[in-house]
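Give me C-alpha cells for this 171-residue protein.
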Amino acid sequence: MAALFGRKSIFLLVACFGAICALALDLNKPLPHFVAKTMDGERITTESVKGKVLLLEFWATWCQPCKSDEPVVEKLTKEFEKDGLIVLAVNMGEPRRKVKKYLENSPRSAKMVLAEDTTLAAICDANAYPMYVAVNRDGDVVGVQRGAGGERPLRRLLAKAGLSAEEQEQY
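Here you go.
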C-alpha cells in the first residue's frame, strides 16, 4: 500500500479516518449502532435500549477517580432504574478474572461489559476514565462527561437524557 500512495498519503488517510471516527459521537445525534455482551452473558444492542435512558460509564479497577464515583453511580442506578435507566459500565482493557475479583469485593448494579466484548469504547472515543455518555430514550447522545465529578454533574447529565427527581431540583 505504501508503494501505491506513499507514506504521507497513508498518514493523511489514517489521520482522516481517525477524525471521522472521532466525529462518530455527535451530541444530539443517534448513538451509532453497537452490540455489547455483559459479563453475565446478556446481549445489549442499540435496538434493545430504545425507549430507555442509557448511561455509559467507561472505567477501570485501578482508576481512583472511578472508585470515588462508584457510590454515586450506584445510587443513581438504583434511583432511576424504575424510570428506565440502564447503566452499562464498560471496563477498559482489564482481564475478565481481575474485573470479576474486583466486583466480588465491590459489587455494582450496573451491567458490566468488558471493552473486548463491545465496540462502545471505540464509538465513544473513550480514552480518559471515568467517562460518561448519556443517551436519551430516542437513542440520541445528549451529553458527555470526561472525568469524575460526583453527584451533581452526573445528575445534570441524566437530566439532559430526560431523568430528573425532586432531589435534582437543587442542582
